[in-house]
Amino acid sequence: MSRVRTRYAPSPTGRMHVGNLRTALYEYLIAKHEGGDFLLRIEDTDQERFVEGAIDIIYNTLKVTGLTHDEGPDKDGGCGPYVQSERQARGIYMEYAKQLIEKGEAYYCFCTKERLSTLKSVVSEDDKEIIKYDKHCLYLSKEEIEANLTAGIPYVIRQNIPAEGTTTFQDAIYGVITVDNGELDDMILMKSDGFPTYNFANVVDDHLMRITHVVRGNEYLSSSPKYTRLYHAFGWEEPIYVHCPLITNEEHKKLSKRSGHSSFEDLLEQGFVTEAIVNFIALLGWSSGTNEEIFSLEELVKEFDYHHINKSPAVFDMAKLKWMNGEYIKKMDNERYYELALPYIREVVHKELDLYKIADLVKTRIETFLDIKDMIDFFEEIPDYDTAMYIHKKMKTNEELSLSILQEQLPLLEGLKDYSIAGIEAVIMGYIKEKGIKNGTGLWPIRTAVSGKQSTPGGAYEIMNIIGKEESLRRIKLAIAKLSSR
RNA sequence: GGCUCAUUGGUCAAGUGGUCAAGAUGUGGCAUUCUCAGUGCUGAGACAGGGGUUCGACUCCCCUAUGAGCUACCA
């Protein structure tokens, strides 16, 4: 068997859609699982949609996710160029298109947009249109074609698909699929601007680059027969097709920009880490068959068997991604964690506090980095809270009791020299023991007083230690004032 | 409208003729804890419907329903 070669062939049109990223991931995994090659090819045949900077996004995404390509525009492996506009400039596509014309498998078409539009027919009020080319130009004589060509009339080259018969292809996931040729449109291979369409360039390049497994989203399933016909027309061996199930939003519709989390960049902005994103999308449409769900890229390479890819569409479930992200944050080594978390902490904490300690506190409690802000804002400034917060049935405490507890603890804390967590604990626990009250009864008022929050990351000791003695006392006195003037 | 594909708990999913139909996430409860988180235990929750085939169907076939994708000089 020949060496496995897969390719990621994105169009530089903007952000990295998670569906595309998953395709890239699967392509990488299929290749690496077999020790094969993973190539990058830029499909920039649509000049209209080209977005400046999009290529950088592609490179950067592959880099940060670890999907390292073996060949590509920046890594020549002998199949270059790896950018379709450059290949177009070399006349590669036109050359092959002409081969097809000679074989009668394609033909020049000089039809204008106007004529084409008369072919459209509106079937229902749902503006569903059937557009099928009528092969008008297929019947042009050689002389007419020559005349048109020399006259410089714009043309496209269309694939010639017979009206009769059927076309069958095989997909590794969906099995054997057969369609009537009558259903297939004579699709355009070469556009009037001299560029190939995706449909054509893709087939030509996949062959020239010796791609063995073509992985793509299942929105291409219905056009696959046309590609099959192209391979047959050339007499080329078809690659193994691996069509992946669609990724949808909560409404079960194709994930689009409107969902707000359709791209890799969106997710990064929303506080997700790359490993979690990769892990999560790997599981959208694929399962290892075991109960394991947390996989590093290396583990995925080892485990990935594309035959286990699912057929049905998968909903992109943010709740589960968040959970998984939290798992990754918890396991993250501190150096990287601080680097990622500190910027978010600095957004809300401007005082001279030990931000590392705050980071430690939230590390096991956040799911995304965006969770940090609301969790730690009280370190900067105590919020204006309601004294009702001191009423807690389970802690067996209320406003009166809290007031007296705070009043009694205040002098003890004022006299405390060692303001370490252990030092604070010793004083407060000493008080609680002496009074013979529940831990919660003694601690609830304090934690509330220094945080002004119902819930906080960490307990009273940790908070007091971080905000320091002076600020702790200020907040406790404030609490006493609040409770007294109730 | 036509074509193609799909259909196991809310979601991701295991499962390929005989299972009390895994697991995860989410969700309810209990316990532990100064709150939160976490951890432990525990609960509820699924084979779209109808016909076949078979001794026996989640698993195979057909129909229906529902959903999705495609139907561009976009990919």
Output mean pLDDT: 94
Evaluate the radius of gyration: 32 Å
Number of strands: 13
Question: So what's the overall shape?
Answer: elongated
| Beta-strand content | 5-15%
Low-confidence stretches: none
Largest sheet: 3 strands, antiparallel
Amount of helix: 40-55%
Oligomerization:
single chain
- Order of strands in the sheet with most strands: 3-6-9
Structure description:
The protein is mainly α and 486 residues long. The chain is 46% helix and 10% strand. It has 19 helices and 13 strands. The strands form six sheets. It has a three-stranded antiparallel β-sheet. A two-stranded parallel ribbon has the order 1-2. Strand 1, helix 1 (18-33) and strand 2 (37-40) form a beta-alpha-beta unit. The N and C termini lie far apart (83 Å). It binds one RNA strand of 75 nucleotides through strand 4, strand 5, strand 8, helix 7 and strand 13.
